[in-house]
Amino acid sequence: MQTYHDKEWGVPSRDERYLFEMLTLEGAQAGLSWLTVLKKRKAYQQAFHHFDISTCARMKDVELEEILRTQTVVRHRQKIYSVRGNAAAIQRIQKEQGSFASYLWSYTQDKQIVHHWQIESDIPAKNELSECISRDLKKKGFLFVGPVIIYSFLQAIGIVNDHVWGCSLYLQE
Protein backbone atom coordinates (compact mmCIF):
# COMPACT_ATOMS: atom_id res chain seq x y z
CA MET A 1 0.00 0.00 0.00
CA GLN A 2 2.79 2.42 0.87
CA THR A 3 4.55 1.86 -2.46
CA TYR A 4 1.28 2.40 -4.34
CA HIS A 5 0.68 5.60 -2.37
CA ASP A 6 4.21 6.90 -2.86
CA LYS A 7 4.70 5.96 -6.52
CA GLU A 8 1.26 6.02 -8.17
CA TRP A 9 -1.66 7.44 -6.23
CA GLY A 10 -2.31 11.02 -7.23
CA VAL A 11 0.32 11.08 -9.98
CA PRO A 12 -1.24 12.64 -13.08
CA SER A 13 -1.53 10.14 -15.91
CA ARG A 14 -2.72 10.34 -19.48
CA ASP A 15 -1.65 6.82 -20.41
CA GLU A 16 -4.68 5.07 -21.93
CA ARG A 17 -3.71 1.60 -20.78
CA TYR A 18 -3.06 2.78 -17.22
CA LEU A 19 -6.35 4.69 -17.13
CA PHE A 20 -8.19 1.55 -18.23
CA GLU A 21 -6.35 -0.52 -15.64
CA MET A 22 -7.20 1.87 -12.82
CA LEU A 23 -10.85 2.10 -13.92
CA THR A 24 -11.03 -1.70 -13.91
CA LEU A 25 -9.33 -2.08 -10.54
CA GLU A 26 -11.43 0.64 -8.92
CA GLY A 27 -14.56 -1.07 -10.22
CA ALA A 28 -13.33 -4.42 -8.92
CA GLN A 29 -12.73 -2.84 -5.52
CA ALA A 30 -16.41 -1.98 -5.00
CA GLY A 31 -17.38 -3.65 -1.73
CA LEU A 32 -13.82 -4.79 -0.98
CA SER A 33 -10.65 -3.26 0.42
CA TRP A 34 -8.15 -1.63 -1.91
CA LEU A 35 -5.45 -3.88 -0.45
CA THR A 36 -7.40 -6.95 -1.61
CA VAL A 37 -7.46 -5.61 -5.16
CA LEU A 38 -3.81 -4.54 -5.13
CA LYS A 39 -2.84 -8.07 -4.13
CA LYS A 40 -4.71 -9.34 -7.19
CA ARG A 41 -3.32 -6.72 -9.57
CA LYS A 42 -0.85 -9.01 -11.32
CA ALA A 43 -3.58 -11.59 -11.86
CA TYR A 44 -5.75 -8.87 -13.41
CA GLN A 45 -2.91 -7.79 -15.67
CA GLN A 46 -2.40 -11.35 -16.82
CA ALA A 47 -6.10 -12.15 -17.24
CA PHE A 48 -6.83 -8.94 -19.15
CA HIS A 49 -3.85 -8.84 -21.50
CA HIS A 50 -2.06 -6.13 -19.50
CA PHE A 51 -5.11 -3.96 -20.10
CA ASP A 52 -4.69 -3.68 -23.84
CA ILE A 53 -7.95 -1.91 -24.65
CA SER A 54 -8.56 -3.33 -28.12
CA THR A 55 -7.79 -6.89 -27.00
CA CYS A 56 -10.10 -6.60 -23.99
CA ALA A 57 -12.88 -5.15 -26.14
CA ARG A 58 -12.71 -8.30 -28.33
CA MET A 59 -12.69 -10.84 -25.51
CA LYS A 60 -15.21 -13.65 -26.00
CA ASP A 61 -17.59 -14.96 -23.36
CA VAL A 62 -15.65 -18.22 -23.20
CA GLU A 63 -12.48 -16.33 -22.22
CA LEU A 64 -14.32 -14.29 -19.58
CA GLU A 65 -15.86 -17.48 -18.18
CA GLU A 66 -12.39 -19.04 -18.02
CA ILE A 67 -11.19 -16.03 -16.02
CA LEU A 68 -14.05 -16.57 -13.60
CA ARG A 69 -13.06 -20.23 -13.17
CA THR A 70 -9.30 -20.09 -13.06
CA GLN A 71 -7.85 -16.66 -12.34
CA THR A 72 -7.00 -15.15 -8.99
CA VAL A 73 -9.17 -12.09 -9.55
CA VAL A 74 -12.35 -10.94 -7.87
CA ARG A 75 -14.74 -13.59 -9.14
CA HIS A 76 -17.78 -11.45 -9.74
CA ARG A 77 -19.42 -12.14 -13.11
CA GLN A 78 -20.65 -8.59 -13.74
CA LYS A 79 -17.29 -7.08 -12.79
CA ILE A 80 -15.44 -9.47 -15.11
CA TYR A 81 -17.80 -8.85 -18.02
CA SER A 82 -17.69 -5.10 -17.41
CA VAL A 83 -14.02 -5.09 -18.41
CA ARG A 84 -14.95 -5.99 -22.00
CA GLY A 85 -17.84 -3.53 -22.10
CA ASN A 86 -15.80 -0.72 -20.60
CA ALA A 87 -12.97 -1.36 -23.07
CA ALA A 88 -15.44 -1.03 -25.94
CA ALA A 89 -16.86 2.16 -24.40
CA ILE A 90 -13.34 3.59 -24.13
CA GLN A 91 -12.80 2.81 -27.82
CA ARG A 92 -15.94 4.80 -28.68
CA ILE A 93 -14.66 7.76 -26.65
CA GLN A 94 -11.24 7.47 -28.33
CA LYS A 95 -12.93 7.58 -31.72
CA GLU A 96 -15.06 10.60 -30.78
CA GLN A 97 -12.56 12.60 -28.72
CA GLY A 98 -9.12 11.33 -29.68
CA SER A 99 -8.35 9.67 -26.35
CA PHE A 100 -9.91 8.58 -23.11
CA ALA A 101 -7.39 10.79 -21.32
CA SER A 102 -8.52 13.88 -23.26
CA TYR A 103 -12.11 13.10 -22.37
CA LEU A 104 -11.34 12.74 -18.65
CA TRP A 105 -8.96 15.68 -18.33
CA SER A 106 -11.37 17.96 -20.23
CA TYR A 107 -13.53 18.03 -17.11
CA THR A 108 -10.78 20.01 -15.37
CA GLN A 109 -9.41 21.93 -18.35
CA ASP A 110 -6.31 19.71 -18.23
CA LYS A 111 -5.44 20.85 -14.71
CA GLN A 112 -5.01 18.75 -11.61
CA ILE A 113 -7.39 19.59 -8.79
CA VAL A 114 -5.42 19.93 -5.56
CA HIS A 115 -7.45 19.80 -2.41
CA HIS A 116 -6.10 21.07 0.86
CA TRP A 117 -7.36 18.46 3.28
CA GLN A 118 -5.75 18.47 6.68
CA ILE A 119 -6.50 14.86 7.62
CA GLU A 120 -7.65 11.79 5.71
CA SER A 121 -11.11 11.86 7.30
CA ASP A 122 -11.67 15.24 5.56
CA ILE A 123 -11.51 13.58 2.14
CA PRO A 124 -14.98 12.98 0.70
CA ALA A 125 -16.08 9.70 -0.86
CA LYS A 126 -17.50 11.56 -3.85
CA ASN A 127 -18.03 15.09 -5.10
CA GLU A 128 -19.82 17.02 -7.87
CA LEU A 129 -17.11 16.20 -10.39
CA SER A 130 -17.25 12.46 -9.75
CA GLU A 131 -21.06 12.56 -9.89
CA CYS A 132 -20.96 14.39 -13.24
CA ILE A 133 -18.38 12.06 -14.80
CA SER A 134 -20.19 9.02 -13.40
CA ARG A 135 -23.48 10.09 -15.01
CA ASP A 136 -21.80 10.67 -18.36
CA LEU A 137 -19.87 7.39 -18.28
CA LYS A 138 -23.07 5.50 -17.50
CA LYS A 139 -24.78 7.18 -20.48
CA LYS A 140 -21.85 6.01 -22.59
CA GLY A 141 -22.40 2.40 -21.51
CA PHE A 142 -19.80 1.99 -18.75
CA LEU A 143 -20.46 -0.24 -15.76
CA PHE A 144 -19.11 -0.04 -12.21
CA VAL A 145 -18.61 3.71 -12.51
CA GLY A 146 -20.67 5.09 -9.65
CA PRO A 147 -19.63 8.44 -8.17
CA VAL A 148 -17.66 6.88 -5.29
CA ILE A 149 -15.75 4.59 -7.66
CA ILE A 150 -15.09 7.51 -10.01
CA TYR A 151 -13.84 9.72 -7.18
CA SER A 152 -11.34 7.01 -6.21
CA PHE A 153 -10.42 6.63 -9.88
CA LEU A 154 -9.81 10.39 -10.24
CA GLN A 155 -7.54 10.24 -7.19
CA ALA A 156 -5.68 7.22 -8.54
CA ILE A 157 -4.95 8.80 -11.93
CA GLY A 158 -4.01 12.16 -10.47
CA ILE A 159 -6.83 14.31 -11.76
CA VAL A 160 -7.57 14.86 -8.08
CA ASN A 161 -4.66 15.23 -5.66
CA ASP A 162 -5.92 14.42 -2.19
CA HIS A 163 -2.61 14.01 -0.41
CA VAL A 164 -3.19 15.62 2.98
CA TRP A 165 -1.15 18.27 4.74
CA GLY A 166 1.91 16.67 6.24
CA CYS A 167 2.18 14.02 3.53
CA SER A 168 5.48 14.24 1.64
CA LEU A 169 3.49 14.27 -1.64
CA TYR A 170 1.17 17.10 -0.62
CA LEU A 171 1.09 19.71 -3.42
CA GLN A 172 3.41 17.71 -5.68
CA GLU A 173 2.23 17.34 -9.25
Descriptive report:
Pfam families: Adenine_glyco. One of its GO terms (biological process) is base-excision repair. GO terms for molecular function: DNA-3-methyladenine glycosylase activity; metal ion binding. Helices cover 57% and strands 2% of the residues. The chain is mainly alpha-helical and 173 residues long. The protein has one domain: Endonuclease III, domain 1. A two-stranded parallel ribbon has the order 1-2. α2 (16-29) crosses α10 (147-156) and α9 (128-139) crosses α10. The longest helix is centred in the middle third of the chain and has 21 residues, at 77-97. The radius of gyration is 16 Å and the shape is globular.
What descriptors fit this protein?
173 residues; Endonuclease III, domain 1; 2 strands; 57% helix
Tell me the strand percentage band. Answer: under 5%
Order of helices and strands: HHHHHHHHEHHE
Q: CATH top level? A: Mainly Alpha
CATH architecture: Orthogonal Bundle
Distance between the termini: 20 Å
The helix content, as a percent range, equals 55-70%
What general form does the structure show?
Answer: globular
Q: Gyration radius, to the nearest Å? A: 16 Å
Tally of contiguous helical segments = 10
Low-confidence blocks of residues:
none
The third-level CATH topology is Endonuclease III, domain 1
Strand runs, count = 2
Spatial strand order of the main sheet:
1-2
Structural class: mainly alpha
Please give the domain count.
Answer: 1
Question: What is the typical, i.e. mean, pLDDT?
Answer: 93
CATH level 4 superfamily: Hypothetical protein, domain 2
Biggest beta sheet attributes:
2 strands, parallel
